[in-house]
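Colleagues,

For the teaching module next term, I've prepared a clean inverse folding example: a structure given as tokens, and then the sequence designed for it. I'd like students to try predicting residues themselves before seeing the answer, so please don't circulate the second half yet.
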């Protein structure tokens, strides 16, 4: 019987905690700090493991919503080409399986980045004016979701104020 992902992650934490960390010399402060950071990240992943697929689907939906909002950009040839590439990424996205969701989100985010650069290069005045506000508005909502995602770990004492 194969160990579960959670069991494998727990095994990594034990190895880092019980073997690697104690074997580091006292003067290896940076290495100790980095091992502790790795342990913390793995523990967070373990706590979020069951909810991760839904979180990634939500991230994809948010990236797609931002992409849809930005496909209205107009301008010169570079902006038109970047808008078309973004449109293709939006059409191609797939919600089947974690890897496909991550790949689709990355492709949309890359296309958004290229469109932002294109709009700065040859976008029309209305697009250059609208893009920053659109991104800030939509990414503020994404940031709040991300803050909630990590709220159980006490990183963000101001979440209640958001």
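(Answer key — instructors only)
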């Amino acid at each position: 019987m194969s160990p579960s992902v959670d069991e494998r992650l727990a095994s990594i934490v034990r190895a880092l905690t019980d073997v690697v960390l104690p074997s580091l010399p006292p003067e290896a402060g940076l290495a100790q700090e980095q091992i502790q950071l790795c342990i913390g990240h793995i523990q967070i992943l373990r706590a979020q493991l069951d909810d991760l697929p839904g979180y990634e689907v939500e991230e994809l939906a948010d990236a797609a919503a931002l992409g849809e909002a930005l496909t209205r950009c107009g301008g010169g040839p570079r902006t038109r080409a970047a808008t078309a590439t973004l449109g293709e990424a939006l059409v191609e996205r797939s919600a089947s399986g974690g890897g496909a969701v991550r790949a689709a989100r990355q492709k949309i985010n890359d296309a958004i980045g290229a469109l932002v650069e294109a709009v700065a290069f040859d976008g029309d005045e209305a697009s250059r004016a609208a893009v920053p506000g659109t991104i800030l508005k939509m990414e503020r909502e994404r940031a709040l979701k991300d803050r909630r995602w990590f709220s159980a770990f006490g990183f963000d004492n101001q979440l209640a104020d958001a």
